[in-house]
Amino acid sequence: MELEFFGAAGEVTGSCHILHVGGQKLLLDCGMIQGSRKTEARNADPFPFSASDIDAVVLSHAHIDHSGRLPLLAKRGYSGPIYTHNASRDLCHILLQDSARLGIRDAELRNRKRERKGRSPIKPLYTVADAEAALTLIEGSHYDDRREILPGVSIRFRDAGHIMGSSIVEVWVKEGSLERKIVFSGDLGQYDTPVLKDPTPIQEADLVLMESTYGGRDHRDRELTFQEIGEIIQEARHNRGNILIPAFAVGRSQELLYLFGKHFDEWGLERWQIFLDSPMAIEASRVYWDYPHLYDEEATKLRRDLDQMPLLPNLRLSQATQESMEINKIRSGAIVIAGSGMCNGGRIVHHLKHNLWRKECQVIIVGYQAQGSLGRRLVEGSKDVRIYGETVRVGARIRTVGGLSAHGDREDLANWYRGFENRPPVCLVHGEISAAESFKHKLETECGTTARLTRPGLKLDLEGLPKLETID
Q1: 311: which residues sit within 8 A by CB, 6+ positions away?
Q2: What is the pLDDT of residue 305?
Q3: So what's the pLDDT on residue 254?
Q4: pLDDT for residue 95
Q5: CA 171 to CA 155: how far, in whole Å?
Q6: Which of the four, 148, 252, 397, 456, has the lowest number of CB atoms within 10 Å?
């Protein structure tokens, strides 16, 4: 019985791990590697395992860095079940097909340039048909329902509070007389965030596989964050510029709309044209509407009292490409929420090309930016960036609003771990090395447990717990 790490080990994206139990292989997540073009080229590499040898897949949530290579897994021979929460299943129908279309479009654009240079064409990672084939394998579940998915392997999904349908996964495994309970945190949300409930506390485990995205820092207080957003909006209004918000289509976009409606008068939003410029985010918002029983207390009360989320009378939903292009004719008074959240593709890149060089404009960064991504370069203060082959000067003010992150910070993560009464050992994944090292120190000094960092190819013997012994 062992646990093997492949993706999101020493980095944030590309979540992928395998539990080996009784000659069976259970895959935990199969995510896309995100960042620079060079980094993302790794997605096309062969899996470090045979896809056809996997017996079952468990998906923590629908975000592409956790689900994005499921179509590739199916394309390369996997035909078994993919277990996830019902809302994650519905969101995957949006995200995976969109991912396929984006990959096809990117390959077409790159192939035009390659053809002019006399180079051979490249193929997209997978097609829409591949995505659809993977979607037929997904089986949805409710939170808190325990089910056996393989001989000697049972799972239960618990609310992770990260996005709709995001799950902490409890896994019970038995091999001969040996029994172990593994808890995979998936991505954990902040406490007291709008719309979603707090991460569910778990009391016991033999091993915790835990994310550490923000294990090295604390987010800004949420009330101060709301105050800062109001100040940014006022400043942009005074400067007669636009506001661009790169946002993940699932989770962040819906939270922003909720906050805009709630603070509509306070932030003076009636003076703005507000655009949700993302067909995928528009579809995802409908999924959010379909799961009101997963809302937190405040959102539940609003829906009950109003039969809707807070109103945004000046919100425009941009579905068509031409509608998106028309936004770039607006020189002042537009707030544009568009994907991708890391600025490494999608409609936000076009808006950046038209606005980034303008000193009267503002760019609000509200989520994690992977190394090598355009968003990361903006956060790190690059003076010039390349957009579609053109050098663009960064004149707009870049504002990082960490309090809106869908990931819990260092204290949120530690608070969730403190729910374990037996203080099980921890393997840290889904974090850059510096963040994971910082959180490892916090867990060991403040929570009294043993923690270790992971790396691709690491194998952990589950018989020797809590020693966290590796297998050479």
Answers
A1: 261, 264
A2: 62
A3: 86
A4: 93
A5: 5
A6: 148
What single-letter DSSP state applies at residue 189?
A: P
Tell me the backbone φ, ψ of residue 43, rounded to 5 degrees. -60, -30
Task: Report helix, strand or coil for 400.
Answer: strand
Burial of 386 (0-12, 13-18, 19+ CB in 10 A): exposed
- pLDDT tens for each residue of 114-159: 999 999 999 999 999 999 999 999 999 999 999 999 999 999 999 9
Name which of 72, 17, 2 is nearest 430 in CA terms: 17
247 conformational bin, left if phi > 0, alpha if psi -120 to 50, beta if neither: beta
Between CA 242 and CA 228 the distance in angstroms is 17
> Cα 301 from chain centroid?
27
171 vs 262: CA distance, rounded Å: 39
Which of 133, 130, 192, 187 is closest to 164 using CA atoms?
Answer: 187
- Our measurement of the distance from residue 224's CA atom to the centroid of its chain's CA atoms, rounded to an integer in Å, reads 24
Q: Which domains does the chain have, with CATH numbers?
A: 2-217+406-461 (3.60.15.10), 222-404 (3.40.50.10890)
Q: Assess whether the previous peptide bond of 340 is cis (omega < 30° from 0).
A: yes
Q: Which residue in the block uniquely carries the two structure tokens 């392997």?
A: 153
Residues of the chain with pLDDT under 50: 472
DSSP 214: B
Token pair in block for residue 446: 């403040």
Q: How far apart are CA 221 and CA 218, in angstroms?
A: 9
Instruction: Please spell the DSSP secondary structure of 284-298, one letter per residue.
Output: HHHHHHT-GGGB-HH
Find where tokens 């050479």 sit.
472
Closest by Cα among 153, 145, 149 to 173: 153
Predicted local distance difference test score (pLDDT) of residue 306: 53
Do residues 166 and 61 lie in contact, with contact meaning Cβ atoms separated by under 8 Å? yes
Q: CA-to-CA distance for 160 and 148, rounded, in angstroms?
A: 21
Q: Check: CB of residue 214 under 8 Å from CB of residue 405.
A: yes
Fill in the DSSP letter of residue 240.
T
Q: What are the DSSP calls for 352-375, one per residue?
A: HHHHTT-TT-EEEE-S---TTSHH
Listed residue (93, 396, 403) closest to 223, CA to CA:
403
Q: Is the dihedral of CA 229, 234, 235, 240 positive or negative?
A: positive
pLDDT in the model for residue 472: 47
Q: How far apart are the first and last CA of the chain?
A: 14
Contacts of 291 (CB under 8 A, 6+ apart): 86, 87, 164, 165
Convert the pLDDT of each residue in 411-428 to its tens digit: 999 999 999 999 999 999
